[in-house]
Design goal:
The chain is an alpha+beta fold. The chain has one domain: GTP cyclohydrolase I, C-terminal domain/NADPH-dependent 7-cyano-7-deazaguanine reductase, N-terminal domain (GTP Cyclohydrolase I, domain 2, 2-Layer Sandwich), CATH 3.30.1130.10. It contains 2 helices and 6 strands, in the order ββββααββ. The protein is globular and about 45 Å long. The N and C termini lie far apart (48 Å).
Length: 129
């Protein structure tokens, strides 16, 4: 059993690449360090994506998120870094990453970043009565 953090993101073949469908993943135990104070920052990350040919493998995602625990990062930078790494690994049609950081000094921070594959058009959402 792997018990060490890793920056390696593994993927697997999308079982339904002919269909646009949304994959949602919540990561409620993210931690990194404040680059100014060295104190821990805690966040929940919400990943939403429309896969193309590859999907992210969840165990590798867990170890990847764990790899930030001892690193100092500003909220904005780490959220963008994670999106860039996920996009590089999976090449999705669309991906949105939302980082909701816990309160620090009476302030909550939420950072939302997106990637859209060139030429991809989102399907229209159906509103049922």
């Amino acid at each position: 059993m792997t018990n060490k953090p890793s920056k390696d993101l593994e993927t697997f073949d999308n079982p339904m690449p002919e269909r646009d469908y949304t994959i949602r993943i919540d990561v409620p135990e993210f931690t990194c360090l404040c680059p100014k104070t060295g104190q821990p920052d805690f966040a929940t990350f919400h990943i939403e994506y429309v896969a193309d040919q590859q999907c992210v493998e969840l165990k590798s995602l867990k170890l990847y998120m764990w790899s930030f625990r001892e690193e100092g990062h500003f909220h904005e930078k780490v959220t963008n870094m994670i999106l860039d790494d996920l996009v590089k690994a999976t090449q999705p049609r669309f991906m949105r990453l939302t980082g909701k950081f816990n309160v620090r000094g009476g302030i909550y921070t939420t950072v939302v970043v997106e990637h859209r594959k060139e030429g991809w058009i989102a399907p229209q959402q159906v509103q049922l009565p």
